[in-house]
Amino acid sequence: MKPSPQSSPRLLDRFFGLVETARGSDRLLLRIAFFSFIGALIWVFFSINQQHSALTAIRGGSITEGIIGTPRFVNPALAITRADQDVVALIYRGLMRINSDGTLVNDLAESITTSADGLTYSIVLKKNLQFHDGTPLTARDVVFTIQLIQNPDLKSPLRGNWTDVTVEEVNEYELNVHLTDAYAPFIENFTLGVMPAHVWSNLPIEQLPFSQLNTEPIGSGPFSISAAKRDTSGIINHYSLSAFRDNEANPKIDSLELAFFQNENTLIDALNSGDVDSSAYVSVENVSRVNSSVFQLIEKPLPRSFGIFFNQNKSSALRDPAARKALTAAIDRDALIDKTLFGYGIPIEGPTALNQHELESKDSTSTRQETAIEILKKGGWGKNNNGQWEKQISGGPVTLSVTIRTSNVPLFESLSDVIVEQWEAIDVEVITEQFEQTGLIQSVIRPRDFQALLFGLEMNRTYDLYPFWHSSQQDDPGLNIAQYTNVTVDALLEKARIEQDEAVRKDTLIKAGNIIRDEQPAIFLFQPSLTYLVSKDVTVADLTNIGRPADRFSNIEEWHTESDSLWPMFRKDM
């Protein structure tokens, strides 16, 4: 027979009755035994708990993010400033997102199937999706968003990404996207935030940029705007965001505060005073001003390539391979990064950092200078009576001098100073000419009017080198500013554009990059890094292969400030 529920209390009553009727010394021993037994049970419980439980993130807490700028177009079709892009990344969701390992994974999409010829993407949406206002999200909203960006009257900065693309709604949860030419990196465009057609489609296109919806947006992302504060001029200086958990999303952070600042000094003061928990807007020269005992620094490379691009048509000296090789050898990239980026950058010898195993050796500056001089001597260069390097080229004497044209912004000014110092150390004459950004583009880059151009190329996460190094892009509006031509590289870059296998595509780009590096149409210097300051009380998801600063929010659902020690059976719903 099973013991009744009252059995255990009765046994305890009998035990305590026995204890109380025992002799004095026996009573003491029985009490000691009882409490020892209870203590042992407690110890066993805590031991088992410690072995089987783990510190697990749980819901709760709030983070205040500091942003420099003013939100104006919190709208995926028009966001162009970093401030706008940051808020868009939190409020909107795309068909896909960047996972913490740097790969693309489905987000709003249940599945995305690419046709064998790479021309058609068949997309199936997850069901029961909704916007922050409770309206269902369907294929109509995706089609509307793409066609809105394609509308020339809107002048969306993303319009070029969707040129020659046709989109069709198949049914409520399915759509097809058709390309005229296969382009494997196109799938990156599916991270575009989806806009609600039911509120935007009622607006005439000319009124859309002025709509209040640009600053009071309705999205389907992990957070929704619960409140907005404005200054005396009516400009938004603070957003309060609440976790939105109705689209299978489950942000662990309950709320997110976005504080907008007009300058870096006030942002740094807010970080040091504890009013702000995180920010990606502190420049590399000012990172040291933020309290390192309170903040962790996350540093991740961005797909930008800075270098000195040669126009060999403008300089017979730079047409000489030995001259270009010597100028390259004389550059100490590590010293350049330390002096101009305060160490926050990745040295590169090729067009990208994809082939990092190919990076230069850690030679000292003096060793580099000796190597450069030896290259010049072996290449037929010698010193003339004026102490300049000189060589007979095309029947006449040519001196090795370089005129560098660049932007007049502080970064390029400091880069120019270091490069001039390193080249003059091997007796190369260097002249620098600085231009306003617009003047540099219109008067120097577009007509290719330079001997050497110190500049930065902005790529995307896929490191598509075609626009910058394919021979078809030599002339304006192409971006092959070094006017580089190589038939083998052309074929590799064409293959990389249509290759669906990511590993094969990456290997193809590395091969092309190695050829470009070896032929030295440019001196590749570095890729800059995103520097993100985050309170040590905040745990963020891994950031891998991000394309722009706003991508740091791709996995914000995994961020947390609260944790607890839990057994596995209790972790699922946290």
Explain how this protein is built:
- Helix 7 (321-330) packs antiparallel against helix 9 (365-378), helix 8 (333-340) packs antiparallel against helix 10 (410-424) and helix 13 packs antiparallel against helix 14.
- Strands 2, 9, 10, 11, 12, 13, 14, 15, 19, 20, 21 and 22 form a twelve-stranded mixed beta sheet that branches.
- The protein is globular and about 120 Å long.
- The protein contains 14 helices and 23 strands.
- It has three domains: 7-52; 62-294 and 536-570, D-Maltodextrin-Binding Protein, domain 2 (3-Layer(aba) Sandwich); 304-529, Dipeptide-binding Protein, Domain 3 (Dipeptide-binding Protein, domain 3, Roll), CATH 3.10.105.10.
- Helices cover 30% and strands 24% of the residues.
Protein traits:
alpha+beta, D-Maltodextrin-Binding Protein, domain 2, Dipeptide-binding Protein, domain 3, 3 domains, twelve-stranded mixed β-sheet, four-stranded antiparallel β-sheet, 23 strands, about 30% helix
